[in-house]
Design brief:
This protein is of the alpha/beta class. It has three domains: 65 residues, Beta Barrel (OB fold (Dihydrolipoamide Acetyltransferase, E2P)); 157 residues, P-loop containing nucleotide triphosphate hydrolases (Rossmann fold, 3-Layer(aba) Sandwich); 58 residues, Ribonucleotide Reductase Protein R1, domain 1 (Orthogonal Bundle). The chain is 27% helix and 25% strand. The strands form three sheets. It has a six-stranded mixed β-sheet with strand order 10-9-8-11-13-12, with helices on both faces. The longest helix is centred in the last third of the chain and has 15 residues.
C-alpha cells in the first residue's frame, strides 16, 4: 500500500434501513432514498428487514459493520426451523377476504404474535365489494369484540380506508395466499413490482426474493412509515414464545391470570382455575383456551 493511500480517511459510517435480504446479501435504504447493496461483516446476528444498520461504503456497494438495538423482532418458528419476518415493528396487519378458505387459527396466531411483541394488531378485510362480504364480517365479529380493529376495503378500487392505520407505523402485512395482500401492496406502493425486480437482480436472488419479505417506505402515510410484504403462509409457529408470555398474549385472559388457586396452574383441569371458570361463564371462548393449550405444547416441544 502506498504511503498516500495509507493516509486516506476511511469512509464514514451511514445509518440505513435493511429493505431486503438474501442469504448474506442485503439491500439497505439510506436516508436520501439511495439503495445500497451490502454484505455483512461477521456473523454475530441474523439480519431482518427493518433492522437499522451502520454501513461503510466499499467498492461495489457497502459493508454492514454494526446493527442498532432492536425494538422487537417478529418471527415464526417450529421444532425444526425459524423464519425472521421483520425487526422494529409497531403493527401487524392481517389481510383476509371472503369466499376463500380463511384459517381462523392462523388469524389467531398472528394476533398472538402481535401481542407478544407489543405490536398493534389490525385486520384488513379485503374485497368488501363482494356480495359474500357480509358472511366474512360475521366471522370477524368475535375478533372485533376482543377490541381488534377491522378495516373494510376493496384494495383494487381504493386502499384509502387503511391509510390512517398505517400512519407513522412500521407494519408487517401477513395473509394467506389469495386474500389480496399483493394487490394491497401494489395499490399502496405503485412501483412495488419494479422495486422487487431491481432488488432481486442486485442481490443475485433471481425469483427467490419475490417469495421473501420486502420493505417499502410509505411517505404518504407520514413520519418514517414503512410496510413489509411477507410471503403468503399456511402456518405460523410460535414455539419460541415463553409459556408465561403466551398466556398474557390472550387479551381476554389477562383479568383472570394470577387469580387461580395454584400459582403454577395450567388452566386445564386444575381445581380453582379462574380461567376455566371464565370459560364456563361464557366470558372466554373455549376455542381460544384450546389454542393456548396447543401453543403451550409447542413451546414445551411436546406432542399434541
Amino acid at each position: 500500500m502506498s504511503a498516500a493511500r495509507a493516509h486516506e480517511p476511511a469512509a464514514r459510517l451511514e445509518r440505513g434501513l435493511v429493505a431486503a435480504t438474501h442469504r448474506r446479501h442485503f439491500a439497505v435504504l439510506l436516508p436520501g432514498g439511495e439503495r445500497v447493496d451490502c454484505v455483512q461483516k461477521g456473523r454475530a446476528l441474523a439480519l431482518a428487514v427493518g433492522d437499522q444498520v451502520d454501513v461503510r461504503r466499499v467498492a461495489g456497494g457497502g459493508a454492514i459493520e454494526a446493527v442498532a438495538p432492536r425494538r422487537n423482532l417478529v418471527w415464526r418458528s417450529d421444532a425444526f426451523k425459524e423464519k425472521l419476518l421483520a425487526a422494529n415493528v409497531t403493527q401487524i396487519a392481517a389481510v383476509v377476504a371472503p369466499d376463500l378458505s380463511l384459517d381462523e387459527e392462523l388469524l389467531n396466531r398472528w394476533m398472538i404474535a402481535a401481542e407478544s411483541t407489543a405490536c398493534r394488531f389490525v385486520i384488513v378485510a379485503n374485497k368488501a365489494d363482494l356480495p359474500s362480504f357480509a358472511a366474512l364480517r360475521a366471522r370477524l365479529a368475535p375478533f372485533a369484540a376482543l377490541g381488534y380493529p377491522v378495516v373494510e376495503l376493496a384494495a383494487k378500487r381504493d386502499p384509502a380506508p387503511v391509510l390512517p392505520w398505517l400512519a407513522a407505523q412500521h407494519t408487517v402485512l401477513v395473509g394467506q395466499s389469495g386474500m389480496g395482500k399483493s394487490t394491497l401492496i401494489n395499490a399502496l406502493v405503485p412501483d412495488a413490482a419494479v422495486r422487487t425486480s431491481e432488488v432481486s437482480e442486485a442481490l443475485n436472488a433471481g425469483r427467490h426474493t419475490t417469495t421473501a419479505t420486502a420493505l417499502y417506505p410509505l411517505p404518504a402515510a407520514g413520519g418514517d412509515a414503512w410496510i413489509v410484504d411477507s410471503p403468503g403462509m399456511k402456518a405460523f409457529g410460535l414455539a419460541h414464545l415463553d409459556p408465561e408470555v403466551l398466556a398474557h398474549a390472550f387479551v381476554e385472559l389477562r383479568p383472570y391470570l394470577g387469580r387461580c388457586r395454584f400459582r403454577d396452574c395450567r388452566h386445564d383441569r386444575e381445581p380453582g382455575c379462574a380461567v376455566a371458570a371464565a370459560v364456563a361463564a361464557g366470558k372466554v371462548a373455549p376455542h381460544r383456551l384450546a389454542l393456548l393449550h396447543a401453543l403451550l405444547r409447542e413451546a414445551r416441544g411436546s406432542d399434541p
